[in-house]
Each structure stands twice: as structure tokens, then as C-alpha cells.
Design goal:
Number of helices: 13
Structural class: alpha+beta
Radius of gyration: 35 Å
Strand content: 25-35%
Number of strands: 35
Amino acid sequence: MEDRTIVYLDGKLIGFHKDGKALAQRIREKRRINEIPYEINVYYKEKTNELFINTSRGRARRPYIVVENGKSRLTPEIYEKLRKGKLRWSHLIKMGVIEYLDAEEEENIYVAKSEEELTEEHTHLEIDPSTIFGIVAGVLPYPEYNSSPRITMASSMAKQSLGLYASNFNMRYDTRAYVMYYPQRPAVETDVYKTLELWKRPAGQNFVVAVMSYKGWNMSDAVVINKGAIDRGLGRVMMLRTYETEEVKYPGGQKDIIELPNPSVQGYRGEEAYRNLDEDGVVIPESEVKEHDVLIGKTSPPRFLDEVSIFGAIEEKKRESSVVVKGGEKGKVDSVVLCEAPSGNRLIKVRLRLQKIPEIGDKFASRHGQKGVIGLIVPQEDMPFTKDGIVPDLILNPHAIPSRMTAGHLLEMLGGKASCLEGKIMDGTAFSGNVEEDYKKILESYGFEEYGEEELYDGITGKKIKVKIYVGVIYYQRLHHLVSNKIHARSRGPVQLLTAQPTEGRAREGGLRFGEMERDTLIGFGVSMIIKDRLLDQSDKSSQLVCKDCGSIAYKDHIKNQVSCPVCKSTNIVEIEISYAFKLLLDEIKAMGIFPRLIVDKKVNMEW
């Protein structure tokens, strides 16, 4: 029994076989001649003498060319028929030329990268070596020259790049969308990029980049950018934000009304806030709006049905519930649409158009995981320049290259430069693209230094910089981490109802959290009184009355104009300053049936 192979089908034990390796080979042969479905995969594990047959859905599988006796099944004749369109992909699978393997069956195979490498031992051949990478990594140029974490980072940043996300963006009403003004096709592309036709939806621009430090302004991954290039539209993006509201119907027969609110409405915002609204209460297209301006005027019925007026009569006073521009945003009203919601109510959408011009703190990244924020924007006349008058758009710090091992970044810079001189797009496909030698020849033929180095002149002094500087053209992406969407400060503002502490988050005009570790830094620095300022005075400081006799929280009776203790009725009361959150804690302890006492020190002399 020990020498028999255990056979599993989709993880379930179905029996034993005397020769598992031979059985696996027979299953593969049957699959190749279409006797069993091509979705089946088989894996023989020699170490434990087990055979796994997988038919379950959801497995990641990829195609390989079958190799027999050291020769590819994709013969020149088959390839020619394929090129002429006589054969299709499905025919190759049925003929057993190509087969799909899952992660487990890949353990049993020996793959050759190219046909020249084939030996008798090989079982399969890669269709193209660049398909080793996924879709996103396949779009990146020269990934085989970079370290793997940088490829991972470049892949995730490619998804954050701002470009032309949809060609019908002017017909769409996405909550938030970005459209680049002048997106460009990369000077160095890959086969995957061309196959996906991503040049129809570009997400970046070709920058002239110099690798040098600039007076410390681009240290620790910051980049220096040319102001002249920004003024000409480099990295400029339009942000489209949609605001919407609906005329909701309430159970009592009441409903919201989209209208121009009149001054009698509760919460009226003042005439200035409604200046851009038309008679119907909706903003006029192309109006210029700033934060807290009203876009859609709306009134709602009161929260409580019976609201008693000063004269005792019951009246229905409307509430102001207009849609306003979010804090920190300003722009033009791009378009307004009036339609019907799925619920049958009237729905209005207003799309705002904001210009996002690159500024200090905005994030840029190349396709090699070299990300950085703008540290300085330099006027064009102060930027270094070449003898031909070429001024870099971006200055990248040389310290960003060696430890990250992104040689692909340097190679793309060389390729981009060669592409500009030659006037054609270069190939950066993994394992099969243009190599350094190709670029050297092109640069030499146009009279440039073969390694892409150039002599630069200081824009301020006009003197030649003593060292040669690496200058090239590379595709950079602007990422949607825009400083204008993140900048946040607060002096005073709203507080939470329960704890009386400042609200949380930028959207709610909240405070910045000062936690335990921040507290420790102040203690370590020796400025302990700042802790009181941060955690009490600037947070939820409150004055509470305390009974000196029994230690409970007292109160003031405004009718009798006296203070008294609710527990022992004493009038021996003092006023203390405590955090409101502490007072809340005392109340919660009382709710559990425990009576906490505040023992007031003799020094407290704020007696009533």
C-alpha cells in the first residue's frame, strides 16, 4: 500500500494508483488531444507520492507553448497560418500547441524563456517572457532592471496617476474625477502598453529630467520643478466634483423643496451665500463659487412636527438645508443636470470644475517607483541649462538611485532622450526591449555624449557646473495625492455634543489628534505645562461645581439664584476646572451604581 500514489480530486481523496507519475502524463496527453476538458490540471508531488487533479473554478491559470523532445509545438507552419488568420487562439488550444496551467501544475514543468534556450529537459516555452509580469507591471518599462519592491510600488502608483480616465468625462457625473490637460504618450512603451492601446488613455507626461542636487531643495525624495514648465501646463489637472440633492418625501406628507430660501427660513445664510442661484434655487452654470457658497437652495420641513412660536401658536417653520461648496474648494460650475431619482423624486446634480496647478507638496512619480513631492518651484531663468538652451522640467536627487536599485529609471531616461532625437517611440518591453547599446548609437549619431551626460550652466551665476550631469527624458505621472485636498488647520471650531471635544477629520473642520506619544515628547523636552494647554485648555475644559462635604457634582438653581448639592443639599460648594470627558466618566460610573467622590483640596478657595 505504501508504494501506491494517493489520488485527490479537488482536494477529496478518491483512491490509489500504482504509478502516479505515469497517470499524470496520461491525463496531460488526453487533455492535449481534447479527450478531457482543457480546464483540468494535474500535479504529481514526488516527495509525498500524491497526485492532485484540479477542476475547481477560480484558479489563476496562464498559457504556455507545449515542448516535446526539445522542440516547440508551435512550428513555423502553424505560426504562418496564425499570422494569415487561418488559425485562431482556440484552435491552438484544441491542437495541443498551447495549454493553460495553474499554480500547482507549474511545479511539474520546466519552462524556457526563449526558443534558443530549449533543451531536451524543457517541457514548456513562454509565449513571450514579458508575460511573466501581470497587466500593470507589464506596462512598466524595463522592470527586469529594477528591484522587486520598486516594481510593486510602481504598479500601485500607476493606478493613482491622473490622466484621461474616460473619454466621455464631460458626460459623466462622478463624485470626484481628475482629467489632465495635456496628457502625452510615453516615449518608451512596452508591448503590453501597445496591446492594451493605453495610449488612448494616457496618464502622464514626458519630462526632461536632470539628475543632480539643487541647493538641498530636493533632498529626501523631494523634486525641484521648473515654474516655466508649470505655467505652460506641465502636470496641470482639472478636478471635477459632483454635488447632488433630492427632494425627499416624508411620511407625514411633507417634503423638501428646492427653491431660493427666503429670510424667514430657520438657518438663513444671508444674501451673499445665495448670490449665484437662479430663481428656481439652482446655481447658474459657469458661476464662480468659493467655499460655503450655496449651489442648490433647499428647504426642509421642521425636525419636529409641532413647533410652538413665541406667541403660542403652532407653526410649521421651514429649515434651511441647502447644498454648499465644501471647505477649501473653489472653482466654476461646470454643468447642472435636473433629472428624476430612482425613487421618483426630483434630483439635481451640480458638477464643479476646479483647476489643480502643481504646487509645493504635490506628488509625482516615474514608472520605476521613484516617487517624490515638489520641494521647490524655481523660475525658469534660475534653472540650470545646457549649451543648447534645454532647461530641465524636473531635478531628481542622485541619492534616490543607488540604494533603490532602479537602473530601469536611468535606462528609460536614456531611451526617452534617444526617442526625442530619433522621432520614434522606443521599446521598453521586459527581456526583449531596446538595450543600452541601441541608445548609445543613436545619441552618438546626433552628437551627444553616449551615456546621456551633459554640461550644465547655473541659471543664477551663468557659470558652468564643474561636473557632467545626467540629463534625459522620462515619463512622469502626477498622482492624486494633492496638497490642496489634504491641507488642514484649525484654531477654533465645532465640538462633539457628547464629549465636548473637537470633532475629528478635515471634512468636519476637526482638530489634530495629540496622543500619548506626542505627550511623551513634551514631557521629555521639559515643557509639561504645554500638555495642560493642549489636552485641557484647547480641548474640553469645563468649570464644574463640587460639594466639599460629600464630593459630588453640584448645580446652580437659577430660579432661587443659589448653588446646592443634589445629594446632601449642602451649600458648601466650590468651582473647579476639569476636562468635560472626566465629568462624563464620572456620570458613566454613577450609571453603574458606583458613587465617585471628588475630594477638593484645601487650596481651592473659589467658594460661593
